[in-house]
Design goal:
Elements lengths: L20 E3 L18 E3 L2 H12 L8 E4 L2 E3 L17 E3 L2 E3 L18 E3 L4 E3 L1 E10 L2 E5 L5 E4 L2 E2 L2 E9 L2 E5 L6 E4 L2 E2 L2 E8 L2 E3 L3 E3 L2 E2 L3 E8 L2 E3 L3 E3 L2 E2 L3 E3 L2 E3 L2 E3 L6 E7 L3 E3 L12 E3 L2 E4 L5 E7 L3 E3 L3 E3 L2 E4 L4 E8 L9 E3 L1 H4 L2 H7 L6 E2 L11 E2 L15 E3 L6 E14 L4 E14 L3 E9 L2 E9 L1
Parallel strand pairs: 1-4, 2-3, 3-7, 4-8, 7-11, 8-12, 9-13, 10-14, 11-15, 12-16, 13-17, 14-18, 15-19, 16-20, 17-21, 19-23, 20-24, 21-25, 21-26, 22-27, 23-28, 24-28, 25-29, 26-30, 27-31, 28-32, 29-33, 30-34, 31-35, 32-36, 36-37
Antiparallel strand pairs: 5-6, 38-39, 40-41, 41-42, 41-43, 43-44
Length: 467
């Protein structure tokens, strides 16, 4: 049943240009453009620039309040002899000649001095062939993100493939340090690397804060906890999905393995990957391990899972299984949650057959609160509903440029591009088709739409809100 697609997310407006790929040779080079402000960010223009950022953070360079922008695709050219050093380290020393692993304590100050605290915009560029093996702390493209008053942000980062193994590991980041009202946000990112650790998540390994509009297609394996998006402890997981296989021995879930913080939310998420647990690692206080199609287990606080579904197979040995949820604490709330009746799970949520979950009525059911779901008209998800903000375009090479403005609009909007324009409503019905030659002015009634433009260079899909 499962299909794996490389689905690349672009901004709602702007022009996409195919970038050259910078291949890492293990060297580091200081960036030369930008001042680090929001208006004039430091430009990361090569793999050596990205490696220098890792080096600087590992030497206690304070990134708080600084902005970084990636301008090219990166090939990290990873291997056992050329491993990526995560941007922000815990329990790993970093000297002039590189990272000396498995050393405690860290070599420079407190570990929070060696974490990333800035704003990193990947601008939709790919980062391929990452390789990290046997780090004792937290690892991913970023190791540790520390929340700051101005908010620490990693966005538009696409890790396409590779291998990451550490005690706590994720494709985008290992973990987050969050305190008080300070926040971290990982937004519009996706991961295709294999993630393997004690606590492993497709996007963030453990103790994430806010994860919005992200997805994972890489396989995830966790010795204790595993989740397609995060293995455990997250405040917000909104509009995310997992397509990779998730395997764990303890708490295992298609989106979250186990344990939300108090008053936390998982909303508008879905899982299509297989979720399995051997149950060989039984957490303290539990008779068995727990596995669920969306969430493995939640124990503390008032937590809400809403507008979620699972169509991936749930398999287990001595675990407590759930179609969408393995086990929820007494204060947990499950709303508008569904699972495929052949996935082997049960418990919370409503079981539905495949035909019903592919029907337009199911899209309408999911859109009762937030109008973010749309029909899978392009068969990207085997006919099951998709999230518009996470499936804006499909392809691995150059795409037809498309600009739609204003967005949102009061009714009339302009489309710039060249190709065949198709407009869909949220249940996948075509409401308009039009040949566009450079520019067209279009008018629609109030509602949520998806605007698709197909041309010689490919296709692009944009979500449009008409108020």
């Amino acid at each position: 049943m499962k299909k794996i697609y490389i689905i690349t997310l672009f901004l709602l407006t702007g022009v996409f240009a195919q970038a050259q790929t910078s291949v890492w040779d293990g060297s580091r080079q200081l960036w030369t453009r930008g001042t680090g402000t929001e208006e004039d960010p430091f430009l990361i223009e090569s793999a050596a620039n990205l490696a220098y950022l890792s080096y600087m953070v590992g030497k206690a360079f304070n990134t708080e309040g600084l902005y970084f922008k990636l301008t090219t695709d990166i090939d990290l050219n990873g291997s056992e002899t050329q491993q990526w050093i995560p941007i922000g380290l815990v329990n790993d020393s970093y000297y002039e000649d590189g990272c000396l692993r498995n050393m405690t304590p860290v070599c420079v100050g407190d570990y929070s001095d060696l974490t990333f605290k800035g704003h990193f915009d990947g601008c939709g560029h790919s980062i391929s062939n990452i390789y990290i093996n046997e780090i004792t702390g937290a690892a991913g493209l970023f190791g540790v993100l520390t929340a700051t008053e101005g908010q620490t942000v990693v966005e538009n980062v696409f890790v396409t493939n590779g291998y990451i193994k550490a005690r706590i590991c994720g494709g985008i980041a290992g973990t987050c340090n969050v305190s008080g009202s300070n926040r971290t946000l990982v937004s519009h990112c996706w991961n295709g690397a294999e993630v393997d650790g004690t606590n492993a998540g497709g996007i963030i390994g453990d103790k994430a804060d806010m994860i919005h509009n992200c997805y994972n297609v890489g396989n995830v394996n966790g010795e204790k906890a595993a989740g397609g998006i995060v293995s455990g402890s997250s405040t917000e997981v909104l509009e995310c999905y997992n397509n990779g296989d998730v395997t764990g021995n303890g708490f295992t879930g298609g989106i979250l393995g186990g344990g939300l913080r108090g008053n936390s939310t998982i909303r508008n998420c879905y899982n299509t990957g297989s979720v399995s647990s051997t149950g060989s690692s039984v957490p303290q206080g539990f008779t068995n391990s727990v596995v669920g199609g969306v969430i493995g287990i939640v124990t503390l606080g008032t937590n809400i899972m809403s507008n979620c579904y699972n169509v991936g197979t749930v398999s287990y040995e001595i675990c407590e299984p759930g179609g969408v949820l393995g086990w929820f604490g007494s204060n947990g709330v499950v709303e508008n949650a569904y699972y495929l009746n052949t996935c082997n799970g049960g418990g919370e949520g409503e079981a539905m057959d495949a035909e019903a979950m592919r029907a337009p009525e199911f899209v309408e059911m999911l859109n009762q609160v937030d109008p973010v779901w749309c029909a899978d008209t392009l068969n990207m998800n085997d006919g099951y509903p998709i999230l518009g903000a996470n499936n804006l375009s499909v392809g691995e090479t150059s795409l037809q440029s498309l600009t739609v403005y204003p967005n949102p609009t009061n009714g009339q909007f302009t489309v710039e591009g060249t190709g065949m324009l198709s407009v869909f409503n949220v249940v996948g019905q075509i409401v308009m088709t039009l040949q566009v030659n450079e520019k067209a002015i279009v008018e629609l009634p109030q509602g949520l739409y998806f605007v698709r433009l197909e041309g010689e260079k490919g296709m692009k899909l944009t979500k449009l809100i008409v108020r």
